[in-house]
Amino acid sequence: MRPRVKEIELAVGDRRSEAWLQVHHAANRAVWGDAAQRTSIEEIVDVADRRHEVRRTFLVSEAGSDVVLAAAQTIRRTRENLGTAGLWLSVHPEHQRRGIGSLLLGHCEQTLRDDGCDRIHDHSGSPAEHGDAATGFALANGYRQTLVDLRQDVALPVDEATLDAFDPRPDPTAYVIETSVDGLPEDWLEDRAVLARRMSTDAPSGEIDLDEEDWDAERVRQLWNTPSPVWGVESVARHVPTGRLVAFTDIVVRPGQPDLAVQSDTLVLREHRGRALGLAVKLANLRALQRERPDATTVRTWNADTNTHMIAINERMGFAVTGWTREWAKHL
Ligand SMILES: CC(C)(COP(=O)(O)OP(=O)(O)OC[C@H]1O[C@@H](n2cnc3c(N)ncnc32)[C@H](O)[C@@H]1OP(=O)(O)O)[C@@H](O)C(=O)NCCC(=O)NCCS
């Protein structure tokens, strides 16, 4: 039988959506074993609107069969970077190396072209430094590698003596650290929008040009202060003389994997760098996570492999390298 690509609508509680997700999970487990990250349909459906994304969902099956052989989602942005799409694609381990990944990828690329995109920028991860099937697959399909990130994990709790030893304790007349759990205070939102805007251009993206993101208080409110299945904690540094927020960091815990806390964005405004504020906000956030979510047993973080300073600090705090993430780009 010939495998065929079908488009589906994802829905919570829907059998086909779950079968689609299980293909991603099976492919992920084949790469990462027990350390594989999991997600849920609930989160995938929730995240699209919150991030101003349009996602289309595809699966591969054989005619007359319900068995899902491969699963993919195309991700288009609607606020900026309109021409640069993301892609999430997995082939069930029992059906790999039969051309099914290439069939589905070709279909997704054509869909994105038809939807007005001219570039794909996405990533793949592996516990092997020199990559795995995804690396061979990306290179075989004309993608070029733009960046490599190191993934590091630490087991929780990190003891208070270690946190204390690393705490840079900023001068309290210059900076104070504030923390907010599962939502941001209204009076942070304007400054937080400025920080998010800077984050969109200051984070390393390899040699690929991305637009500055158009953040305002309303967009921050929509992302962080509307009910969500994703739990988050954020710490910020406030510059005392001006009262402005000048640094932030986030940790999120997803409903599909409540034992795993994921270190998300961190930024210190350029003019306030060199004062260990990044470390100060991260430590405050880690302390809050340990207090609020005793069920989380691991924190996971990613840094560009060139960010040797941050990687070394993480190592001294007990983080160990557990994988590599490669970013890929292709003009369509
Ligand atoms: C990467 C993945 C999608 C490939 O799917 P697939 O159906 O096996 O791919 P194809 O059969 O179409 O392979 C096409 C070409 O890619 C390359 N390739 C695929 N798997 C490879 C591997 N394990 N090692 C080296 N090259 C590989 C080969 O050049 C292959 O052509 P060939 O079989 O004629 O040599 C699949 O391994 C997978 O789901 N991995 C886990 C999830 C993931 O990493 N997804 C990608 C990131 S979103």
Domains counted in the coordinates: how many? 2
- Would you report the number of β strands? 12
Please identify which CATH superfamily of the largest domain we are dealing with. Gcn5-related N-acetyltransferase (GNAT)
Beta-sheet strand percentage?
A: 25-35%
H/I helix tally: 9
Which structural class fits the helix and strand makeup?
A: alpha+beta
Fraction of residues in helices? 25-40%
CATH architectural arrangement of the largest domain: 3-Layer(aba) Sandwich
Task: Briefly note the CATH topology name of the largest domain.
Answer: Aminopeptidase
**Rg, Å, rounded:** 21 Å
Terminal Cα separation, in Å?
30 Å
Query: On the 0-100 scale, what is the average pLDDT?
Result: 94
Strand line-up of the largest beta sheet = 1-2-3-4-5-12-6-11-10-9-8-7
**CATH domain class name of the largest domain:** Alpha Beta
Bound molecules: coenzyme A
- What is the chain-wise order of helices and strands? EHHEEEHEHEHEHHEEEHEHE
* Largest sheet, strands/sense/barrel: 12 strands, mixed
The low-confidence runs, each spanning 5 or more residues with pLDDT under 50, are none
